[in-house]
Amino acid sequence: MEREWKCEDPARRQAWSAAINETLRVFEGKWKIVIINELMAAKRQPLRFSALEKLIPDVTQKMLIQQLKALQQDGIVHRTVYPEVPPRVEYTLTELGHALGPSMTALIDWAELRQLHAQAPAR
Fold this sequence. Notes:
Elements: H1 10-26, H2 32-41, E1 47-48, H3 49-55, H4 61-73, E2 77-82, E3 88-93, H5 95-98, H6 101-119
Antiparallel strand pairs: 1-3, 2-3
């Protein structure tokens, strides 16, 4: 969807700002973006909790649980518990989570562009 940035309606622009702020709130926390990236890289295949722990070695188990719960509450991650002993828990991105793909790509592109500008000699 192409956004018409030259909007003359201040209320509309404020609504856009509020929507962006609420979206960024969903990503607050050191590990949420890392978790989303790992689930995105899984290409719609579920990841077990233990696999996420191995993929993100610096996160504590408690923090991983908290961040996954928050992402689940925000509709980004789906959690499936299988009635086995011991219980098997798997995580996948929801359709809403997968819809983040283009935005995440755009943010990566912007971050790389920003790094290039930071490395460029001052004029």
